[in-house]
Structure formats: C-alpha cells, structure tokens
Amino acid sequence: MVFACKKENQIQNQTMKNTIAVLALSAFFTFSACKKSETTNLTTNEETQAEQFSVDSVKVNDSIKLNDSLTIKYSSKMLVFPSIKDKKLLDSIYFGDKNVQDFSKNGIQSLLEKNKNEYFNSIKKDSKDWISDMKFAQEWYSDLGMDLKSNSNDYLHIQYSWASYEGGAHDNYGFSERVFDVKNNKKVELKDITSMPKDKLEALLMKNVNKMNGGASDDKGEINNSDMLLVEVIPATGNFYFDDKNLYFHYSPYEITAFAAGDITIPVSWQDLAGTLTPQFKERMKFK
User: Fold this and answer.
1) What is the pLDDT of residues 69-112, one digit of tens each?
2) pTM (2 decimals)?
3) What are the residue boundaries of the DUF3298 domain, all occurrences included (predicted)?
C-alpha cells in the first residue's frame, strides 16, 4: 500500500513536471512569436517609410567634332522621383523644360537624348557661316545639372545648375535653388516662411553680404562681396533654400556682383527673422 502511494506520487510529480515543461515551452514560443511579429512590423514600417520617397537619376554625356577647330560637348543630369505622383508638383520640379510629359525614368532619359540632339544640330546649323574662319582649336560645351541637396521635414531642396562655353573670353554658369513642400505638393515661397516686409529683408541681405565670401582675391588677399556689388539693393529673390540655421539666398555671376566674385550666397539667420516666421513653418521645422 505504501509502495502504491509512493508510485502514485512519483507519477503525479512527473506529470506536474511535464505540464510545467509544456507551459514553459508554450510561453517561449508565444514570446518568440510576439518578438517575430514585432520585428516583422518594424521591418514593414521601415520599408513603408523608405517607399514613401525614392529618387533616381538619368544622365547623358556625349560629344561631336565639327571640324579640326571645334569640338562640342553636351552633358545633362536630371533626377527622377518615382514616388511623386502629383502632376502639378512634378511640373514645378521640372520647370526648366516645358517638354516634360513622361516623368518616368525612360521618359526623362528620352528627353535628355532629344535635348542633346537638338543642341548638336543647332550648333551645326549656326556654325556654317563662321566655322571656317576659326583660327585655333576650341572646345564648346553645355552642362546641365539637377541635384538633390536635402530632404528633411517633407521639404525637398533641389539645386539646378548650368554652365556653358560658346566662344568669348570665358564660360558662364548659374544656379537656381528650389524647395518643394512634398506634404502639400507645392513649391515653397518666401511668404510660406516669413512675413517680413521685402525692404527689411533686403536690408538684412545687404548687412550680411560679406558673411559668405565667394572666394575672389587679389594680391592684397580676399575681396569682400560688397566691393564687387553691381546693385544698390540686393533683391530678395525666389532663389533660396534653408536649413536648421539659416535662410540662404543664392546669386549667380553678374546677378548682383561682377563675374570675378563668382556665385554669391547670403545667409539670413532665423534669429534675424524672429517674430516673422509663420506658425506652420516653425512647427514643421521644429523651431521653439
């Protein structure tokens, strides 16, 4: 009788151990499944965020030799935004070329090839009357660029650039800065940022003109931007961009200064604009 009770207790103990082991194993699998689910959800969220904005680019780089004296080069780069679907926003992004109808990568690539051929054909046609008079070898070129400078707080900053040489004393180049609000599908205007009157903003530009010198120098050293100004008032143009420190206005050669000054960028700090920033802009930029 004692042996039977002892045996029964052993069986009960073993059963309890088995039950505990099963429960522990079940809890482990449940915890693992939850962790896997959390990881899967995290990965899915990260992938979704990555898919919300994507950027690609296409390039064309080619040259032709018209004769022993003249070589023509053409290069162009455009960005492609597969995740942007709003046509008005895309039209604004590609403002420099009104012929853009197909915003896909293949469409933009075809456009660049078309633009290249038109450029070459134009030079060929125009050069018939004077190319035989060229006395020394020259290399003419056209270079167009489109670069993504930043994408933060749903503000997309794109810099457009151009450079060319078609005879003369030197080449020419210039820049256009544009910031796009991809949350509201529009180009950002100054009124979206600040309510400061134009004359006061232009006074700040004149005050800050030498804060970022263009790099011009002479035998005495660096030359201030203000020493090469061609204007009495520096205009507050739409050619601006910004970061968490400043609002920047970018001017191409000859726009406000002599060519030797190069392109000029003038910063205006957010402190300078204190009290005039729009509530929506302050909230988006996380300014206190």
Assistant:
1) 999 999 999 999 999 999 999 999 999 887 788 999 999 999 99
2) 0.81
3) 197-270
**Each residue's pLDDT tens digit, 119-162:** 999 999 999 889 888 888 999 999 999 999 999 999 999 999 99
For the chain, give the DSSP string: -HHHHHHHHHHHHHHHHHHHHHHHHHHHHHHHHHHHHHHHHHHHHHHHHHHHS--EEEEEEEEEEEETTEEEEEEEEEEE-TT---HHHHHHHTTT-TT----SHHHHHHHHHHHHHHHHHHHHHHHTTTGGG--S-EEEEEEEEEEEEEEETTEEEEEEEEEEE-SSSS-EEEEEEEEEETTTTEE--GGGTB---HHHHHHHHHHTTTSS----EETTEEPPGGGGB--SS----S-EEE-SSEEEEEE-TTTSB-GGG--EEEEEETTTTTTTB-HHHHHHHT--
**Alpha-carbon span 16 to 225, nearest angstrom:** 87
Interatomic CA distance for residues 66 and 243, integer angstroms: 46
Which token pair is 131?
């190319």
86 Cβ neighbours under 8 A, 6+ residues apart: 185
Alpha-carbon gap, residue 159 to 176, rounded angstroms = 6
